[in-house]
Specification:
The mean pLDDT is about 95. The protein starts with 7 loop residues before the first helix and ends with a helix. By secondary structure, it is mostly helical.
C-alpha cells in the first residue's frame, strides 16, 4: 500500500544529509555539464549512488505525485532517487502497478536525461515491461530514431533484460540502426549491449561485426569485443576474420 504522507520534501531533506561539495564538483565534471556537452546545465548535490539507493528504499512507498516532483527536480540526484523509487515499486508491484509505472516513465523521458539515469532504470522498467508485453516493443523502434540522445539510449539499454533472458534479436536490430549515430555515448551503449549478447552467445555478435566492420564506430567495436580472448580480440579489431 502506498503511504501518501511521505513527501518529496522529506526525500530532499534526507538526500541533503549526504551532499558533499567536493563530490558535487567532481560529478559536474564527470557527467559533462559544461556548455555544449551532453549534460549541459545538469546540477548536482554531490551524493554517492549507494546513499541515493539507501534513501530511495527508505521512501519506497512515496506516492506517484510526490515521485513526479522529484523526477522534475533540477538536481540530478533527486531525479535518480525518483527513478530508483519507481524501479523498486515496479519490481514489487502487480500488473496494474507495473503498467502505470511503465506509462509514467514513457511520458516523462525528458527527465531521464543523463546516461546513469538511463542505465539504472531503462531495463528494469521499460525492458522488463516489454518482456511481458512484446506488443509494446514498437516504442523502442520509435525511441531509437528519436532526436533525443537519452531516448535512443533508453531503447538500447532496455534490451539488456531481453539479453538476460536469451533474446538477442532486438539488440542486434537496434545496434544496426545505431551504426551511423553521431553520439559517442550511443556507440558505447550499443557496444556494451553487443558485448552482453556475446557473453551469452558469440555467433550473433561476431556475425554482426563481420557484416558491419567497415561501418562500425571504433568505440562500438572496442566495447563489443572487450570480453574476447586477446588473440580473437586483436583479430576482430583489425578485421582479420
Amino acid at each position: 500500500m502506498v503511504i501518501t504522507s511521505m513527501t518529496a520534501v522529506q526525500v530532499q531533506r534526507e538526500l541533503n544529509r549526504y551532499a558533499n561539495p567536493v563530490r558535487k564538483k567532481t560529478n559536474e565534471w564527470f557527467f559533462k555539464t559544461g556548455k555544449g556537452e551532453y549534460g549541459e546545465g545538469d546540477v548536482f548535490l554531490g551524493i554517492r549512488v549507494p546513499d541515493i539507493r539507501k534513501v530511495s528504499k527508505q521512501f519506497y512507498s512515496i506516492s506517484r505525485a510526490e515521485t513526479k516532483k522529484l523526477l522534475q527536480s533540477p538536481y540530478h540526484e533527486e531525479r535518480l532517487a525518483a527513478l530508483l523509487i519507481l524501479v523498486n515499486q515496479f519490481q514489487k508491484g502487480d500488473d496494474v502497478t507495473q503498467k502505470s509505472i511503465f506509462d509514467f516513465y514513457i511520458r516523462h523521458t525528458k527527465y531521464v536525461n543523463n546516461w546513469d539515469l538511463v542505465d539504472l532504470s531503462a531495463h528494469y522498467i521499460v525492458g522488463a515491461y516489454m518482456l511481458k508485453h512484446p506488443n509494446e516493443e514498437t516504442i523502442l523502434d520509435s525511441f531509437v530514431c528519436s532526436k533525443s540522445l537519452w531516448e535512443r539510449r533508453i531503447a538500447m539499454v532496455a534490451t539488456w533484460i531481453f539479453i538476460r533472458e536469451g533474446k538477442f534479436d532486438k539488440t542486434i536490430e537496434l545496434a544496426e540502426i545505431l551504426l551511423d549515430d553521431k553520439e559517442d555515448l550511443m556507440h558505447k551503449a550499443s557496444g556494451w549491449m553487443l558485448r552482453e549478447v556475446w557473453k551469452k552467445k558469440n555467433a550473433p555478435v561476431e556475425d554482426f561485426i563481420k557484416k558491419h566492420y567497415t561501418r562500425m564506430p571504433r568505440t562500438m567495436l572496442r566495447y563489443a569485443i572487450e570480453k574476447m580472448d586477446e588473440i580473437k580480440r586483436k583479430q576482430f579489431l583489425k578485421g582479420n576474420f
